[in-house]
Design brief:
By secondary structure, the chain is α/β, with parallel strands linked by helices. The protein is built from 6 helices and 8 strands. It has helices spanning about 20-30, 75, 90-95, 100-110, 140-145, 165-175; strands spanning about 5-10, 40-50, 55-65, 80-90, 120-125, 150-155, 190-195, 210. Strand 5, helix 5 (about 140-145) and strand 6 (about 150-155) form a beta-alpha-beta unit.
Length: about 220
């Protein structure tokens, strides 16, 4: 019998960095220049046949770029066991926001051992490098290590550059550690919400109330 593992990964970053495009490319192998800005949160599912005994139901949660300034991210982050932090290589302001997003993650969600959820940094839109900030960016290898990222990748949803590789790096780390598991739930269409009138926990594997999302919340 195969074991099913539900893995929730957050995709965060400022407005317009290409989070939705990255998810669509990875899940559906499609790309468009015309994506509407995400409002609140959307999510998509990718089923991975990890090995002969394990199926991973990978949920990628697309968090709207403006949500860092609101109070709902704590709800959206619950039960996450990994994150992709995305910036746009053509806009310096989105790189400057990376540490704010990383700090938001570390403050609002953690694994049950108290460690931050593992995160990978994506320098997106590398297909536009001639218009980008490559010469102005600090050495991302040292930067990502110093800031607690698992690593970093130059990515392009348009050219399908390094997206599979980056996500696989994160998932492999999650499965290798396999120390902190979310609540047993093989239904990918369930959304974890906080239990009313109870003190909230930062632990990403402690929620018990499950409510199906609305149809308009699908990617």
């Amino acid at each position: 019998m195969q074991r099913e593992r539900l893995v929730k990964v957050l995709v965060v970053g400022d407005l317009g960095v290409g989070k939705t495009a990255i998810i669509r490319r990875y899940v559906h192998q499609v790309f468009s220049h015309h994506y509407r800005a995400t409002i609140g949160v959307d999510f998509a599912l990718k089923v991975l046949h990890w090995d002969s005994g394990t199926v991973i139901r990978l949920q990628l949660w697309d968090i709207a770029g403006q949500e860092r300034y609101g109070n709902m991210t704590r709800v959206y982050y619950r039960e996450a066991v990994g994150a992709l932090v995305v910036f746009d290589m053509t806009r310096a302001s989105t790189f400057q926001a990376v540490l704010k997003w990383k700090g938001d993650l570390d403050a609002k969600v953690a694994l049950c051992n108290g460690h931050p959820v593992p995160a990978v940094l994506l320098a997106n839109k590398c297909d536009q490098q001639k218009h980008g900030l490559c010469a102005k960016l600090p050495k991302l290898e040292n930067f990502s290590r110093e800031q607690g990222f698992l690593g970093w990748y130059e990515t392009s949803a348009k050219d399908n550059t390094n997206i599979d590789k980056a996500i696989m790096h994160l998932v492999e780390h999650i499965m290798a550690s396999d120390a902190e598991k979310p609540a047993v739930d093989s239904d990918p269409n369930r959304v974890i919400l906080p239990t009313p009138n109870r003190r909230q926990s930062r632990c990403s594997a402690c929620s018990t109330l499950h409510t199906p999302p609305r149809e308009d919340e699908q990617l």
